[in-house]
Amino acid sequence: MELPYLVAAFIKTLSDVLSKPVLRIGTKNGLPYADIVFEETPRQTIDERIAKIDAARTNQAEALSAIDELKAAANSNKVDLESALERLGQTQAEHDAAKRELELVRQVASSDVETFQRLAGVPSKSQIAKERALGFVFGVLASLIASGVWWLLTKVWPYLKT
Questions:
Q1: Which site among 6, 46, 118, 155 is 20 to 30 Å from 15 CA-CA?
Q2: Which pTM value belongs to this model?
């Protein structure tokens, strides 16, 4: 029975040498040296493994609950976004309707002002210019006529000159 144990130990040592050798090179007491050191991996007890599995399970449960919370928040944000987009669409439609109504009001107001000006007899700019030109011409003519009348009167009655 001892031979299989020795063979197993040899195979284990050989696998350690081939899989995990650590080469250390340096100087000791001023002389160069090189060592091959095999570092043993610490063995864990079953209790330690179970504790790690429990910790992993707890972390997984916490991660899943965090994912569920993020999913719920994303769904809530999605609903809020859809609601905001719907309100934005309604507001845009109301804005367009108000714009059309404002344009109609401006057209009506413009036509009402023109109608009121015609009914009230408010002259247009061309009519005002025409009346001013006629007033100037008639003023010049009236001045000439008045000067002619004064000239005739001073000829007939010379004492009016003084």
A1: 46
A2: 0.38
